[in-house]
Write a structure and sequence with these properties.
Shape: globular
Largest sheet: 5 strands, mixed
Number of helices: 11
CATH topology: phage-related protein like fold
Low-confidence stretches: none
Structural class: alpha/beta
Order of helices and strands: HHHHEEHEEHHEHEHHEEEHEE
Helix content: 25-40%
Radius of gyration: 24 Å
CATH superfamily: phage-related protein like domain
Strand order of the largest sheet: 5-11-8-6-7
Strand content: 15-25%
């Protein structure tokens, strides 16, 4: 247990493919603390303990506590990164629409896909000696487009040094929430327009223009067959139209919505509000088959500037993109 003697430095942020905490764990493995008072802390948490830095709660320390020494200053970018990541997780709906997450070390990535015909979707009997039906999987023609989303942290150290970390964390979490919303918009646009490989979502038109009916929802439900309609994405205005349908006024649905904030739906699908869905659109997907998220960078911070207290132009970013897996696992109802 040598957590209080480790030399912390900027270079620990520059190890390719590893976070600061990953590098820290190599010097200070978690398993060394089983059965001790520090068992519940990870390597970063033990460093906060070492320098007596409290980042949350009523007794949280001011920002300047991180800069009591060069070693403790090296912890500041990781604190910023974790606070931003926490904000992303709290505002994140991607887990409800992404089937899988792929992490890459570069900006070039080519996904795979399969576009079965109606005949290939059927599981037919195979007679003895007959050819077994095949599923063709191939790489997409075009690369996945990765987008960098983030914010520039603009503040002087003098303005922040006496502010409590608990309050500063709230601001950083809002940056994370912003990034999460932008990535959600990117994901929804990929479902709608495709990822550049001629795989835009199929559309279903409402029976009456400008009017949403329950039968329209059933048309969307059937359009996804043989996939399962388990997620519906819509703008807030369209969500209001959904809630006004008589089928959604079932007393049991109302009790659940009023008590938990979760809308019950006769179709059993989870509803997600997102302005990127587009006016007069209802997007239905099978979240287990529709979308792949490609991550090149979770949270990247200008660690040099943060350690040196040059907060005036410190960028906080995340780089990710989205690819469609099965084209027919998503469809759009046009009202």
């Amino acid at each position: 247990m040598n957590f209080d003697t480790i030399k912390l430095e900027k270079g620990m942020y520059a190890v390719e493919g590893k976070s600061f905490t990953d590098v820290l764990k190599e010097y200070d493995p978690d398993e060394n603390y089983k059965g001790t008072a520090l068992e519940g802390l990870d390597a970063f948490g033990r460093q906060l303990k070492r320098f007596d830095i409290r980042v949350n709660g009523i007794g949280s320390d001011p920002v300047q506590k991180f800069f009591q020494s060069s070693d403790s200053a090296a912890l500041f970018p990781e604190y910023v990164s974790r606070a931003v990541r926490q904000g992303m997780e709290e505002a994140d709906h991607l887990k409800d629409i992404v089937a899988t997450v792929t992490r890459v070390n570069g900006l070039d990535y080519r996904s795979i896909t399969s576009t079965p015909t109606e005949d290939e979707k059927e599981l037919k009997d195979v007679a003895e000696g007959a050819v077994i039906p095949q599923t063709n999987i191939h790489t997409n023609e075009n690369l996945v487009k990765l987008s960098k989303r983030g914010r520039m942290l603009v503040a002087s150290y003098e303005a922040l040094k006496f502010q409590r970390l608990d309050l500063f964390t709230v601001t950083l979490k809002q940056i994370g929430a912003y990034i999460a919303r932008q990535q959600m918009n990117d994901a929804v646009k990929t479902i709608l327009d495709g990822d550049g490989n001629n795989n835009a979502a199929a559309t279903v038109s409402a029976a009456t223009d400008g009017t949403l009916s329950y039968s329209d929802l059933l048309s969307l439900y059937n359009k996804l067959d043989p996939y399962t309609l388990n997620t519906i994405i819509a703008t807030p205005d369209m969500m209001a139209k959904l809630l006004s349908l008589s089928e959604f006024k079932n007393p049991l649905c109302g009790i659940n919505f009023q008590g938990t904030g979760e809308m019950g739906t006769p179709l059993g699908a989870k509803f997600i509000r997102c302005s990127a869905a587009g006016a007069d659109n209802l997007i239905g997907i099978d979240k287990n088959c529709a979308l792949e998220m490609v991550v090149a960078s979770d949270i990247a911070v200008d660690y040099d500037k943060l350690i040196d207290r040059q907060l005036e132009r410190a960028a906080i970013t995340s780089t990710a993109g989205f690819a469609k897996i099965f084209k027919d696992a998503g469809a759009v109802l046009k009202i």
